[in-house]
């Protein structure tokens, strides 16, 4: 009996990854990456992918979207695309179609990641608790997080848009940063700092503080942070890691993820060599009388770039996407 074939896609602000999942498991040899910039929407991307794959019949389609989803319709946060479940069903002919937030997909993928793809970042003072809540934090083109809960009826991953929360302010410098960011659209949110574009804005702030006006792209900022010769780049890296630690700690206190916190996304991975250098663990645990309590949450980095695709396949098979 032939295996049921599912089409899965992970749609970020910059790229879309598409794959086939026969029998509910992603065929990694089938993964293709498409740049979003020159395409008007998801339809042409899926059509191009299916054409190169020989137009196979797909019984199910699940797409993970970097943006809020309501009633099967997703609006991208950092891309001018709208993705509609009914339109996807019509375009692909699939009987089952799901549209979920990309961080939800990452949550479903936990425990199904490629071997060796979890890099420990902050150790806990006790063993990881099986069945405990977990938390996925995504830092890439945008910022978001999703709590992961195990229940008697299976895994539940709830959506959020916590990248739009107000940035934490604990000093006069933080207040100046908030005022600097507010000039863009009247509100300073976490994503304005903790993302690829946020890294650029954070550098611009420190450049302004130093009486400079240079505004390099995120890749150049990361290169300068690694080189360590530019004090503005060093200040930018230190601020990024400190704010990320603070926000991750706040989210940990909100969701109590004793099963672990997992950082995912290109920017999260790019900072791997700098978390210790700039004191991520100290910022994460800096919660006054709850600082000791924060030692119960382990933090790791997910180095599997295709985890969201696995999560899509698992989500559609679980029935939680309906």
From TrEMBL:
Signal peptide: none annotated. The keyword Transferase applies. It holds the Pfam family Glucokinase. The lineage of its organism: Bacteria, Pseudomonadati, Pseudomonadota, Alphaproteobacteria, Rhodobacterales. InterPro entries: ATPase_NBD (IPR043129), Bacterial_glucokinase (IPR050201), Glucokinase (IPR003836). Keywords: Kinase, Transferase. It comes from Defluviimonas salinarum. The keyword Transferase applies. This is Glucokinase. Belongs to the bacterial glucokinase family.
């Amino acid at each position: 009996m032939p295996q049921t074939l599912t089409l899965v896609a992970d749609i970020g602000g910059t790229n879309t990854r598409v794959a086939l999942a026969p029998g509910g498991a992603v065929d990694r040899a089938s993964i293709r990456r498409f740049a979003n910039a020159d395409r008007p929407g998801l339809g042409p991307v899926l059509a191009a992918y299916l054409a190169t794959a020989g137009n196979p019949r797909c019984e199910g389609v699940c797409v993970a979207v970097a943006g809020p989803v309501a009633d099967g319709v997703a609006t991208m946060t950092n891309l001018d695309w709208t993705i509609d479940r009914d339109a996807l069903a019509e375009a692909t002919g699939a009987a089952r179609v799901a549209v979920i937030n990309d961080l939800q997909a990452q949550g479903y993928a936990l425990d199904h990641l490629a071997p060796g793809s979890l890099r420990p970042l902050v150790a806990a003072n006790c063993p990881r608790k099986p069945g405990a809540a977990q938390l996925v934090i995504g830092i890439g083109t945008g910022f978001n997080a999703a709590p992961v809960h195990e229940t008697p009826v299976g895994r539940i991953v709830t959506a959020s848009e916590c990248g739009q929360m107000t940035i934490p302010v604990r000093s006069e410098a933080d207040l100046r940063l908030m005022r600097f960011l507010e000039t863009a659209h009247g509100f300073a949110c976490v994503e304005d700092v903790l993302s690829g574009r946020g890294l650029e804005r954070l550098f611009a702030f420190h450049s302004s503080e130093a009486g400079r006006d240079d505004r390099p792209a995120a890749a150049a900022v990361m290169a300068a942070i690694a080189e360590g010769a530019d004090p503005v780049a060093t200040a930018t890296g230190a601020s990024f890691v400190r704010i990320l630690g603070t926000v991750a700690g706040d989210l940990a206190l909100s969701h109590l993820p004793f099963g672990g916190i997992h950082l995912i996304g290109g920017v999260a991975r790019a900072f791997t060599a700098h978390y210790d250098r700039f004191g991520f663990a100290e910022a994460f645990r800096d919660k006054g009388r709850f600082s000791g309590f924060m030692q119960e949450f382990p933090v790791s980095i997910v180095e599997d770039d295709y985890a969201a695709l696995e999560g899509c396949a698992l989500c559609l098979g679980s029935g939680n996407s309906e």
